[in-house]
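Field guide to reading this record: the first block holds the primary sequence, the second block holds the structure written as discrete tokens, and the final block holds curator observations. Each block starts with its own label. This record concerns 18.1 kDa class I heat shock protein-like, catalogued under organism Dorcoceras hygrometricum.

BLOCK 1 — SEQUENCE
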Amino acid sequence: MSLIPILFGHHRSNICQTSPMDIWAPFFGSNCSNTQEKTQRTAAKEVSACAGARIDWKETPEAHVFKADLPGLKKEEVKVEVEEGRILQISGEISREQEEKNDKWHQVERSSGKFLRRFRLPEGAKVEEIKATMENGVLTITVPKGEVKKPEVKPIEISG
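BLOCK 2 — STRUCTURE
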């Protein structure tokens, strides 16, 4: 993505634009999944819709805490998984409002579609003790911290 259009006021209609920080997505998570779906609105041109789940990640002395804003979703509509032992994956789908034949849309700003976010958990994370709660549209995931094993240092004898 070029920064020039943003700096000079040209804004694309892609709801799910990637930010410059998304180059780190393979390591720290991405704002959108690669499976973006196309949606068509009566009064709007075709836009690429991806529900951008905004997530905060903070570390406390006891745990890593993730908070995701998922307004309108129920806990049954969100999936929280751990892949490959250390990849926290949060996914779901924000449905769009049903369109009626005589509806006339004046503005469409709320995103809809599938979302998928992944985070590589640090060593020592107690993945078997992860807790997730959903309250008032906010998903909170708590990953307790454990002891990080110190790497074994083996001295090598220098010959010669």
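BLOCK 3 — OBSERVATIONS
The radius of gyration is 21 Å.
The chain has one domain: 4-96+109-144.
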